[in-house]
Structure formats: structure tokens, C-alpha cells
């Protein structure tokens, strides 16, 4: 199994671990410390070696930060984790705060005292974060102290070793462009910006640029590394040499100067001493990186990671790979749904068994490299936890008469998939059908949207919510995230959300996943992946439009649809979608599954 169901959280760790940390802070002359859920790369997936927030508090979510002062502490999480954090963390030790509505900066402004020293790990807090923290400390009469060594590491006795996943070469036949082509384009962009070099801190940016993949973190084929790219000449790749076979080393040596991670700060200092103008992304680069350049005489050019946008706008080879991966994945998912419909009415299924079975169907393709994230298998009240992770202690039997939510994906060499379906188990209520249909209406609105060049995800986000809003409902996560090409299942800079400020461009892949989650009852989410495309001309239109091509091909559960709430346009969309699913996926499944698929995609 790619997924573990062990319970990784221990709320009882909060008090003793906070005490250990406070003792170490006192020894160092510090009055407080911040512990983010981040490593030096600011990635979504953090190796066990860097799971400091989990060690300290027990919280296992993908976003959060803890603040520890002498007599007070708190943990900050966003709306996805408001339920989870209370289950995993001792609220007496770390009271929960909302990361967005009541951020850590406001908490510090209230609790920091004049003369106190607040410490941070210089590699774990970005340039942008540190600016705000310095303002807060200055206003409170306190001092922000950046540290090269993390005091928490000194008291974490059983800390795991750093990962040493082997690096592989990603073939041009799947990447669509050679690494040299990508490097040349990046260097041209640096010259246009009058930059002498850029620093890449995101492993997925480096993996895409150099056409490599790795296995240092769960579910995402990333080789943890840093890179500097000059406007001319060879880039430098800072990576543990033990991850490289002889053949991979030979190939990378032709493209880059290979260095050990311990030499990264020295390499940055060399850029500074040369008086270089160095581009860094202030939202991604740790303040320690910026200081290593400026303290030695370099100048910073602050700009978005220059690889993010080229990586997000997929070439035709990458898009064709994504289409092929999604069709293969759809067949596996239809096999799973047919099995689920046979077994669920018997009452013997539980969350773990369902997740295991879905992975089994994906493995049966023969080409699954990994799942793209831990499957969210949510029965009853667990379905209402947006990013629920089933464990052996939380595992529920799937009840009759409620929707069941399953959100999952696969990593294939030609593409990364992510799909959510909400399934009826037994007879569901009219209210459940209404809520499902409101979510479906929002999903259809995004899928059928037409919009001009320059439109951002924030402008589209309302389309997914408007019918929910009319009914006094909403959901506390974005409507859509970017997806990589055999890389991260969550990829920036594109997103459909209130904070999605990047214009959408043809070739980007985004999820379309509105939801609704009555707390303590059940969850509903419907997710397909969409490619941004140039839309067909609209009769009488005055300008070209963009739209979406849906590449996820799995039926929606018609047993949960209240047809009376759909417009004729929405009903036609659902029927056309199901006709396409039946035509494209039907030939890829067995006779029994085809019979199931015919019924599941009947016109309404």
C-alpha cells in the first residue's frame, strides 16, 4: 500500500514537548519561537525529518503554525482544519486560532511584551513573512531573532534522518521539452529582467526544469534540492550526491554543476561577493537565503519563481499525457464504483477497506507509481472534515442512508490525477439530494464558464458558490487548485479561489471541486480536472474567449441528484458528460462494469 493508516497524531505530546522547547529557548535567551508546518522548500509535503509542528503539537495537516511564548502558546490553522485540529491537539496547551481570520501576527501583537526576543528558523520563514513579523515585533517593542539552527531540533531526540530518495531522469517523450531548452528559456527571461541569476527553492520547479523526478516525500516524485541559475552558463544543483546513480550523475553533470546541500549558503555568498543581482521569490524563499546574498554584497530582485508559470502552462505532450492518465484512471475508478455498489448495501464496508480497494484497482493498471495524496475516505461525520485522513483509530463503518465522500488520485508517469465523488449509500434524504445538487450546479457553472484572456481564478470562484450562497451555504476551501505533470497534485500559481489572482492561461490544469460539509453529519464534494483551452467562437461575440476541457471521466451519482433543481442547460450538460464517459471509458472495462456504467450514465 502507498497509504498508511497508522495514527500519526498524539495530542498528549503537546505539554511535554512544549516544556522541552521552552527550556531550550530559555537556555538560548529567547522568549518565544514560531514553528511552521514547513521545511526549507516551503512545499506541501514535508519529510518526517522536518515535521516539527507535528512533533510539537500532534497536528498532521498540511498548513499551520504554532507560536510558543513563556506562558502562552497557540496553533493556527485554516478553515480546512478547524475540526481536525481539535481532535489532534491538546487545546489546553495549544488553543486553536484561525490562520486567516486571526493570523499569528495579530496574536503576537497582543501577547509579545517590550524587550522580549522572538526566534525563528531563518530557512523556514519566507522573506515576505519576516517583513510582517518584524513590523509586529517592532510595534510591540520586541526583537525578532533569525536563527541558523532550530532549537526544536536540539530537543527532538528521535528525529528521523533526512530522506535519500533516488533521482530518476524524466524522458523528453513525456516532458515535451528538453531540459536544455527549458534552461535556455529561463536564462532569456532572467536577462530580460536584468537579473544575473535566480535562486530556485521549490523542488518541483527544479524537477521540471531539469527533467528529473525523485522520491524524497510521500506521493509526489520530488528530489529535495536547491538550485541557482545564472543568466548564462551552467546552473548549480545542490543535492545530496547519495541520491544520484552514476548514469543520472553523468547526465546532470552535463547540464549543471553538482554541489552538496551543505554548500548552498556558500554558493549564495559567492553570488553576493560578485555583486550579482539575484532574483528570488519573496513568497517562497527563506529569509536566510536572502540574507546570505545581501550580507555579502548582492542585490535582490524580488519576483515570482520564474519557473512556476512555464511549468503551469503545459505543452501539448504534457496535456496528451494528462488525458491518457485520466482515461486510464477513470477505468480504474469505474471498476471501483461497480464494486462499491455491490458491496456497500451489505453494510460491511469501512473507510480503510474502501481506500485499500480503490488503490488496488489503480495498481491493477500496471503503471501506477504512487497515489497522488492520501485518499480521503470519509463516512458520515468524517466526510465533513475537508482534509480528513483515515487512521485505524478514526476508521468508521460506512453507514446506510448518508452520502460517502471519496477524494483520491494517482501518480502515473504521464500525468497526475485527482478526483472526488460523493456516493449514495442506501436511501438518502431530500435535504441531502438538495445539497448535492447545489454543489453539482456550482461544478457545472465552472466547467461551462467562458471568460476573456486575463480572467483570474478569483473572478470565477463565485460561479461555484452562487447557488450555495442563495441557500445560505458555503464551503471553506478554494474551488480549484493547479495540478502538475507527474509532479504536485497541488500546483501554483493558478487557482480558482478568492485568493486566485493569477490570470488563467491555455494549457493550465485546474481542479473544479465545490463542496458542502454539514459539521458532524456528512460531506459532499464533486471534483473533476479541467484544462484551460481557447473556446470556440461564440456567435455574435466581440472577442475570443477561454474555457475548460474536462479530462476526468467518471459518472456523477444520479441517485443524489434532485433533477427539479437543475436548469435545462445543467441537465443537458450532465447528460452530455455521461454520454462521453460511457463512450470513452466503456471500452476499457469488463462486461459487468460496462453494464453498471450504462445504468450509471442513463440520461435524466
UniProtKB/TrEMBL annotation:
Q: Where is the Peptidase M24 domain?
A: 322-534
Q: Name one GO molecular function term.
A: metal ion binding
- Segments forming domain Peptidase M24 C-terminal: 544-604
The UniProt keyword set, sorted, is: Dipeptidase, Hydrolase, Metal-binding, Protease
**What enzyme category does the UniProt record give?**
hydrolase
Any Pfam family the entry gives: Creatinase_N_2
Q: What is its EC number?
A: 3.4.13.9
Q: Which domain of life is it from?
A: Bacteria
For this record, an example GO cellular component is:
cytoplasm
- Is Aminoacyl-tRNA synthetase one of the keywords? no
What family classification does the UniProt entry report for this protein? Belongs to the peptidase M24B family.
Identify this protein by name. Answer: Xaa-Pro dipeptidase
Which organism is this entry from?
A: Roseibium album
The gene designation is: pepQ_2
Amino acid at each position: 500500500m502507498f497509504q498508511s493508516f497508522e495514527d500519526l497524531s498524539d495530542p498528549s505530546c503537546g505539554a511535554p514537548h512544549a516544556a522541552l522547547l521552552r527550556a531550550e529557548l530559555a537556555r538560548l535567551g529567547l522568549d518565544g519561537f514560531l514553528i511552521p508546518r514547513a521545511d526549507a522548500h516551503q512545499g506541501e509535503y514535508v519529510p518526517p525529518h522536518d515535521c516539527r509542528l507535528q512533533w510539537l503539537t500532534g497536528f498532521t495537516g498540511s498548513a499551520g503554525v504554532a507560536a510558543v511564548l513563556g506562558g502562552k502558546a497557540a496553533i493556527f490553522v485554516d478553515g480546512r482544519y478547524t475540526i481536525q485540529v481539535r481532535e489532534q491537539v491538546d487545546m489546553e496547551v495549544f488553543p486553536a486560532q484561525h490562520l486567516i481570520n486571526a493570523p499569528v501576527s495579530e496574536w503576537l501583537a497582543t501577547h509579545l511584551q517590550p524587550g522580549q526576543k522572538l526566534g525563528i528558523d531563518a530557512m523556514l520563514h519566507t522573506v515576505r513573512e519576516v517583513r510582517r513579523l518584524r513590523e509586529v515585533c517592532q510595534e510591540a517593542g520586541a526583537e525578532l531573532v533569525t536563527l541558523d539552527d532550530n532549537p526544536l531540533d536540539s530537543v527532538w531526540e528521535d528525529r528521523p534522518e533526512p530522506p535519500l530518495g533516488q533521482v530518476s531522469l524524466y524522458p523528453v517523450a513525456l516532458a515535451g521539452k528538453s531540459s536544455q531548452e527549458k534552461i535556455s528559456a529561463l536564462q532569456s527571461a532572467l536577462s530580460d529582467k536584468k537579473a544575473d541569476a535566480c535562486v530556485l527553492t521549490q523542488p518541483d520547479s527544479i524537477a521540471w526544469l531539469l527533467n528529473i523526478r525523485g522520491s524524497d516525500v510521500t506521493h509526489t516524485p520530488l528530489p529535495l534540492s536547491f538550485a541557482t541559475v545564472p543568466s548564462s552558463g551552467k546552473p548549480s544543483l545542490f543535492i545530496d550526491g547519495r541520491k544520484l546513480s552514476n548514469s543520472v550523475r553523468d547526465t546532470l553533470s552535463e547540464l549543471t554543476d553538482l554541489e552538496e546541500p551543505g554548500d548552498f549558503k556558500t554558493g549564495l555568498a559567492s553570488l553576493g561577493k560578485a555583486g550579482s543581482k539575484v532574483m528570488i521569490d519573496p513568497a517562497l524563499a527563506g529569509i536566510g537565503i536572502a540574507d546570505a546574498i545581501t550580507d555579502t554584497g548582492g542585490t535582490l530582485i524580488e519576483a515570482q519563481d520564474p519557473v512556476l508559470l512555464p511549468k503551469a502552462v503545459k505543452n501539448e505532450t504534457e496535456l496528451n499525457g494528462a488525458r491518457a492518465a485520466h482515461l486510464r484512471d477513470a477505468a480504474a475508478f469505474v471498476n471501483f464504483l461497480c464494486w462499491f455498489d455491490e458491496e456497500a448495501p451489505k453494510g460491511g464496508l469501512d473507510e480503510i477497506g474502501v481506500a485499500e480497494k480503490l488503490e488496488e484497482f489503480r495498481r491493477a493498471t500496471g503503471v501506477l507509481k504512487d497515489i497522488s495524496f492520501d485518499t480521503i475516505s470519509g463516512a458520515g461525520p468524517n466526510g465533513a472534515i475537508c482534509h480528513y485522513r483515515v487512521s485505524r483509530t478514526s476508521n468508521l463503518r460506512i453507514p446506510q442512508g448518508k452520502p460517502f465522500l471519496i477524494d483520491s488520485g494517482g501518480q502515473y508517469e504521464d500525468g497526475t490525477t485527482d478526483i472526488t465523488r460523493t456516493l449514495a449509500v442506501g436511501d438518502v434524504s431530500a435535504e441531502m439530494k438538495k445539497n448535492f445538487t447545489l454543489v453539482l450546479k456550482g461544478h457545472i457553472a465552472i466547467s461551462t464558464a467562458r471568460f476573456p484572456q486575463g480572467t483570474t481564478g478569483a473572478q470565477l470562484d463565485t460561479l461555484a458558490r452562487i447557488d450555495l450562497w442563495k441557500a445560505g451555504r458555503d464551503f471553506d476551501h478554494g474551488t480549484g487548485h493547479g495540478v502538475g505533470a507527474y509532479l504536485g497534485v497541488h500546483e501554483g500559481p493558478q487557482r480558482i479561489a478568492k485568493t486566485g489572482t493569477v490570470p488563467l492561461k491555455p494549457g493550465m490544469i485546474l481542479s473544479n471541486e465545490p463542496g458542502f460539509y454539514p459539521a458532524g453529519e456528512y460531506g459532499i464534494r464533486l471534483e473533476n480536472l479541467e484544462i484551460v483551452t481557447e473556446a470556440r467562437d461564440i456567435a455574435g461575440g466581440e472577442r475570443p474567449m477561454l474555457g475548460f476541457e474536462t479530462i476526468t471521466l467518471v459518472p456523477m451519482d444520479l441517485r443524489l441528484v434532485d433533477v427539479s433543481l437543475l436548469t435545462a442547460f445543467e441537465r443537458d450538460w450532465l447528460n452530455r458528460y455521461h454520454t462521453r464517459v460511457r463512450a470513452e471509458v466503456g471500452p476499457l472495462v469488463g462486461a459487468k462494469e460496462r453494464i453498471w456504467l450504462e445504468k450509471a450514465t442513463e440520461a435524466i
